[in-house]
Design a protein that fits this description.
This protein is α+β, with helices and mostly antiparallel strands. It is 42% helix and 17% strand. It has 2 helices and 2 strands; from the N terminus they run βαβα.
Amino acid sequence: MNHVVLPLDRDHQAAVASLGARLASVAGVPAPAGVRAHITVVAYEDLDREVVLAALAPVVATVVPFTVHAHGYGLFT
């Protein structure tokens, strides 16, 4: 399965890593290591990567930075 993701900036990466470590501690599981926090926009199968990139290019070129409000964080162990 392939994914289109939005990476987070360095400050938000650090905040999510801290949150993940605290959640892992409470859940009694190892803290996630080497994970790059991101927002998954869509997951897909059976599409050619080049076709997906070509379809996204005009959208990405016009999107300005935006604010995301999130809740219900999950911890994948």
